[in-house]
Q: What sequence folds into this?
């Protein structure tokens, strides 16, 4: 009787695994994550949301909205840390804004033709209603609805997902901004 070559390969692999102790769960070493020194909390996210809402209101009321919007991007978005994924609500021709300049255009108008300056409405208030907040060490994600109150008292409801990351100063900055109008059945 001749044995096939793959039988010997299986025999060798099985022997190596057994000798390494991989078949015994108690002998597998436990790997623990490094401790998180300054974990993001739900309260941190709530404070970041409040700051963002106040910043949107401030842009619309500013004497120089472009400078206020740039300050908002510098303070609240993580462009200085790396990639920011930005998908604004009222964007269809260019739905994703990969650069800080494109985000600025969305808030106050400018480099992208379809942008009319979302933050120029102006608004009196922005409030968040979170569906949930997930925190994990130095990052967090929140999802829900936010409501923009116009100066005439009317509200616009928008669905959102924001991602946050801590910067070197311990501040939360947005590295994911996705918002859209609620689906409306025809």
A:
């Amino acid at each position: 009787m001749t044995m096939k070559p793959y039988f010997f390969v299986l025999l060798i692999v099985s022997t190596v695994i057994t000798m390494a102790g991989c078949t015994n769960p108690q002998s597998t070493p436990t790997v623990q994550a490094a401790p998180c020194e300054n974990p993001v909390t739900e309260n941190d996210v709530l404070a970041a949301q409040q700051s963002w809402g106040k910043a949107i209101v401030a842009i619309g009321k500013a004497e120089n909205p472009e400078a206020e919007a740039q300050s908002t991007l510098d303070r609240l978005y993580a462009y200085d840390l790396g990639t920011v994924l930005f998908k604004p609500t009222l964007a269809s021709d260019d739905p994703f804004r990969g650069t800080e300049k494109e985000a600025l255009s969305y808030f106050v108008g400018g480099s992208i033709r379809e942008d009319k300056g979302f933050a120029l409405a102006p608004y009196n208030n922005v409030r968040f209603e979170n569906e949930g907040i997930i925190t994990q060490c130095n990052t967090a994600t929140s999802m829900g609805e936010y409501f923009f109150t116009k100066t005439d008292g009317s509200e616009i409801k928008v669905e959102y997902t924001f991602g946050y990351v801590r910067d070197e100063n311990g501040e939360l900055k947005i590295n994911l901004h996705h918002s859209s109008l609620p689906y409306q059945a025809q």
